Amino acid sequence: MIGLISYIAFFATMAGIMAIAVLGLNLQWGNTGLFNGGVVAFFGMGAYGTMILGGRPEAEQFGGFELPFLIAFAGGILAAGLMAWVVGKLTLRLRHDYLAIATFGVAIAFESVTRNAEWLTGGAKGLRGFPRPFEAAIGDGFTYGLVFLALVLAVLIVVYVGLERLVRAPYGRVLRAIREDEVAARSLGKDPARMRLQAFIIGSMIMGAAGGLYVTFYAFVSPQDMAPILTFQLWAMLIVGGAGNNRGAVLGAFLIWGAWTLSGFALARYAPASMQLYAGSVQYILIGLVIVGMLLWRPQGLVPERIGKTFNDRAAKAPTNTGAHQA
Amino acid sequence: MIQNLVDGILTGSIYSLAAIGMTMVMHMLRFANFSYAELLGIGGYAALVFDRLFAALVPALGVAIEPLTLTWALVLAMLVAMVITGASAVLFDWLVFKRIRAKADALSMVFASFGVALIVRNVITLIFGHKAELYSQDIAFAVVLSRDPMLLVKPDQIFTLVAALVLMLAFHLVLTRTTFGYALRAVAENPNLSQVSGVRLSSMVTAVWMIGGGLSAAAGVFYAMTNHLSPVMGHNFVLPVFAATIVGGIGSVYGAVLGGFIVGIASGLALMVLPSGYTPAMPFVIILAVLLVRPHGLFGEDRDA
């Protein structure tokens, strides 16, 4: 019984962390129409940033400053935001798909650094040893798992409520206005480049927060945790749940993480031994099919975007980004 | 130094071949296609299948053409692979991109192309396995061109460079000397106006996918001849090919050729100062530099900001 509960807590913790990252992605893609092709890099920046600031010192290793958890966590989030600022500043003025290329490039560059800059990131062996908050008081057993789940859910709720207020506020309306018709928004005196940059940075910082929680949970991070598939998983969660809808984003995160975990179990159990090495490939193909299938047949997702009264006539439309470049 | 430069030129020719199709697709269909580089993998593996098949059917074809490791079987297999890859590019467009184009925007196509890339790459992994494959088990000895400075080149590398240049020249002649090439350039210049002049846009889109697929297949085979085949090949080419396209300016075929060589040479020279583990990130640095200094590339037009 304890085993089952502790497994459910583990599952919910991971799904909750993913849901936080998906909420960040939703602000970028769902509300603002920005394509982030390297989510894993911003997640990873939060993870490595938190680890370096809050981890324990090791010989010949930069970092391990053992800062209090909240400061380390905030530092990781800021690092992700800083990276977003640089990338956004360079690309957001240009053709809309340049951001996709640049963020994809960031992810590749980030992976190179995590694998090679051993003094900073520990290289392939990664970084380990992180004093988890309250661990000294509670110990690292069953109870800690539940406390950590509560922490993740608390962050998830804070992010969710914060984003709901943000997108319902005039600020959110401006973001959608820019997404739908940039020229019209500009004619009303809005600054699309600045708004987009802000949304991109805030979204990336939320992804960084998810990464920070991830590294706190495992007290370990290595390039294996930052595999490109994470970007695809998060994208699948958003498109299944419904881009533009925060409730859908959270639902999608739990659904896809559940499907991913179950398919992993099923493959481990029923696939022939010779195929075990390729179980990952089967799962990747499923994720790819989910993404392409949703885009083809139900682009609005399970929970479509709901837009306030003034935009009722657009409510039926899938969240799209009719960029000025198509004009 | 000189070795890095020569290696960079050899790699650059492969980037150039792949970037020609990419720049045309990106310009004509207005989206960054992340599944494009997977065509190199499709081409490389299709050639592997037919190379084995031809060599088994007609053993005489399986003999290496000295001093290359290349066989006539592989030459024929490459031609077949070019057609197959072109056809699969058209098939992806027909199955996915065309449908999304009809109802959604360019960024949804970017998104879909990520999904297509993931599917293609992993289907290749399932069929051929994780391990690297080679066309020929013969050891290709490098020839010492000069001792001071040290310069080693394999005959296969020279062949792939020449073959890549011949393919580019052939495409240049098609573009400049035929009605078809004229129509292709017209579509690239102004899709609407060219339609008014009687060019069928849909058949031009098909043609661009065929050409892009064919050239990418050749690039994939050339890469596999001088390195090896692996399922992650497509993934590794995504960024350099985008970089070549952006350096050259989106839509410029000649820019893409030049961009490919620039990216190849810059990555080669970077090895002198950076450990090789950072090579995959080099194209990204080049992209950032171009976006800072000249956002529309060397030959790009400032038409869609």
TrEMBL record, chain A:
Gene Ontology CC, one term: plasma membrane
Transmembrane segments: 6-27, 34-55, 67-86, 98-117, 142-163, 199-220, 226-243, 250-271, 277-297
InterPro entries: ABC_transp_permease (IPR001851), LivM-like (IPR043428)
Membrane-topology annotation of the record: Multi-pass membrane protein
GO molecular function, one term: branched-chain amino acid transmembrane transporter activity
Cellular localization per UniProt: Cell membrane
The UniProt record lists the keyword Mitochondrion: no
Keywords carried by this UniProt record: Cell membrane, Membrane, Transmembrane, Transmembrane helix
Domain of life: Bacteria
Name this protein carries in UniProt: Amino acid/amide ABC transporter membrane protein 2, HAAT family
From TrEMBL, chain B:
Chief localization: membrane
GO terms for MF: transmembrane transporter activity
Pfam families: BPD_transp_2
GO biological process terms on file: amino acid transport
Transmembrane spans: 12-32, 44-65, 71-97, 109-128, 158-180, 201-225, 237-262, 269-293
Subcellular location: Cell membrane
CDD domains in the record: TM_PBP1_LivH_like
Keywords: Amino-acid transport, Cell membrane, Membrane, Transmembrane, Transmembrane helix, Transport
InterPro entries membership: ABC_transp_permease (IPR001851), BCAA_transport_permease (IPR052157)
GO cellular component: plasma membrane
Protein topology in the membrane: Multi-pass membrane protein
Family (UniProt): Belongs to the binding-protein-dependent transport system permease family. LivHM subfamily.
Protein name as it appears in the record: Amino acid/amide ABC transporter membrane protein 1, HAAT family
Species whose genome carries this gene: Gemmobacter megaterium
